[in-house]
Write a structure and sequence with these properties.
Length: 119
Amino acid sequence: MIHDPTDRISLHLHYRRVRVWAGDTLIADTRSAIELRETGYPPRQYLPREDVDMSYLNRTDTATHCPFKGDANYYAISLYNETLADAAWSYEAPFAALMDIRGRLSFDTAKVVERIGDE
């Protein structure tokens, strides 16, 4: 069942610089993020794929379903001698109300460092 996210989720365009680091490796750098704010969860940045170094990401078999966003596919980040399992996710076909995040990537901030600002 598809639920209307109107009172639960909002999307916010911003042009602040968002960088994602896995250890000492810069994975993403953008000024075109969309911030998703969802009741009960911390804000999440959704980055355009063209601003993510996809050579470090490998799709995993993990998939989850959100009744407000749809089905998410997950990616591991593979570094030189370490793999961060399911460290990023993407909604390839989100529900209509959230099409703006389609194909963008968000990162698990418990596994990577996300810096937001103009520095």
